[in-house]
Specification:
alpha+beta; 4-stranded antiparallel sheet; 6 helices; 6 strands
């Protein structure tokens, strides 16, 4: 995969990610839910995540700022990893995986850096662009999440199940966005296609063998 193709992939993911977040943010009250095509297992459910994945929050007055700065510092390293991988003509699996992770990380960074000053609060009202009463400050934005797939909802586990026996559970109960999905896909490729991702393509292997014959 060429660098231009990777950039195009990243741009498309960012465009879809930000478009979906802005649409939900400006058309849904916080906590609003819409069943897509009337399906119980596919819903748009608007929430905002002030911290890390699964809503984990770094405690303290500067917790959010530290998290945002950390994300900003990490992304250039992912970008360099992508560039170096392309230059070395590594596997397209690896290039695609890194591009997906990069796009997802960048998408959520945009929320964390800008959304606090771009929007006002969504509780009991629709948010608007660049209002005077914005809900946060620069670097203190909340990540917009909306996709919810409760395939199995409020299922009562048998009493003999350890720890959770007799309790109601929902699968899948995570609410996420396009950026989260992009990161998950990238990590999934690295895990499930590990050998293909970290194996040189046949063209590169042939080139290495050719150069060795010239030594």
């Amino acid at each position: 995969m060429k660098l231009t193709n990777s950039i195009l992939l990243i741009f498309i993911i960012l465009l879809i990610d930000q478009a979906s977040k802005v649409f939900v943010k400006t058309n849904f009250y916080y906590g609003d839910e819409l069943k897509v095509m009337g399906l119980d297992w596919f819903r748009i459910h608007f929430i905002e995540n002030p911290g890390m994945a699964w809503g984990t929050i770094i405690p303290g007055a500067y917790g959010k700022l530290i998290l945002t700065i950390f994300r900003i510092l990490v992304v250039p390293f992912i970008g360099y990893w992508l560039y170096d991988t392309i230059e070395r003509e590594k596997s397209n699996y690896l290039i695609a995986a890194i591009a997906l992770i990069f796009a997802g990380a960048l998408g959520n960074i945009i929320d964390s850096v800008l959304y606090g000053v771009m929007f006002n609060d969504s509780h009991n009202k629709l948010a608007t662009f660049f209002p005077e009463d914005h809900y946060g400050t620069l670097f203190h934005g909340k990540v917009v999440d909306m996709f919810y797939f409760p395939i199995i909802e409020d299922y009562l586990l048998p009493n003999w199940v350890p720890i959770w026996g007799g309790k109601e559970v929902t699968f899948f109960n995570a609410i996420f966005n396009v950026a989260d999905f992009s990161i998950s896909c990238g990590v999934g490729i690295l895990i499930f296609f590990n050998k293909r991702a970290f194996t040189l393509p046949q063209k590169s292997i042939s080139r290495v063998r050719f150069y060795k014959t010239l030594d």
